[in-house]
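hey so i finally got around to running both of the ones u sent me last week. sorry it took forever, my laptop kept dying halfway thru and i had to restart like 3 times lol. anyway pasting them below in the order u listed, first the sequence line then the structure token line for each. didnt double check formatting much so if smth looks off just lmk and ill redo it

first one:
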Amino acid sequence: MINTAELKEVIALMNEGGIQKLHVEHDGTVIVLDKTLTEEATKVLTPSKNNEVELTPPLKNEEPSKAVCEVRSPMVGTFYSSPEQGASPFVSEGDRVRANDIVCIVEAMKLFNEVEAGIEGEIIEVLVKDGDIVEYDQPLFLIKQ
């Protein structure tokens, strides 16, 4: 069985190495970590009495073809929703975006980094406010494909 400290170490190595999917088997326990899955596509894995893994379907009954994806912060910094103070935001809830559309700016050490949507879809929620400090990999937007 993998203990919590070992699991945290595996997750940290996965994050540092930019690994999107990892399958680990150790002493009869199987762990699958997959960052590419959306919340709707995620299955809950629960071990049974004989260490087999059972799949539990997601709790939400939404259209499987309409995935919700997160746009995450590429770094620690300050979130800006518009190109300059007083200007209209790059995007708002309900806006349609293309993969290369700029959705915000994250400023770190006087470097202003434009963040692109990464996928085509509709902005369904802005998760942070203008001027908020954001962490690396923190979700900024939810986009429905």
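and the second one:
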Amino acid sequence: MPALAIVLILSGCDREADPAPQESAAQTEAGKEAKPGEIDRSHAGDLMPAANMVDPEGAVLNLGALQGRPVLMNLWATWCAPCVKEMPMLDQLAADYEDELNVVTISQDMGDPAKITEFFEKNDIDSLPPWIDPQLALGEAIGAATLPTTVMYDRSGQEVWRVTGELDWSSEPAREAVQQVVDTP
């Protein structure tokens, strides 16, 4: 099944938008269908998977251990142009929120983990640790069909909203959406 997830992810990233949007069950705040790059609340209440991620040196992060403060989890890859564009903004978000929010970027790259470290160094990403999904199973676990996919979880590990596709994380609407979750006890 992870192979199917890889095919779906590969087919979605870095493509031109279809001229006619496909039907989707994703819902925005106003109850309309969410488009790529819009906040989607259709998965609200889903629990964060208790999966283990690793860094290039082999350190392990259990996502379940992050409960207690909000988590913004981003699935990305070095070969995904929208993902690469988002990384500096996510790095700045992590720096701005320090102890109030866990910003966790998880690479879906296959092969040598050193390419993740090289990407972080080359792009001056210094507020985010370079986590990797070693089994490439996280996308399937959360129902992500494309990259980037970013999911906001509350303090108890329940999904609040997600964004499929690129988002300007420095924009006022994005910052307000993050702040609302951070401010919720």
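quick thing i noticed on the 2nd:
Confidence is low (pLDDT under 50) at residues 1-11, 14-28.
anyway thats it, ttyl
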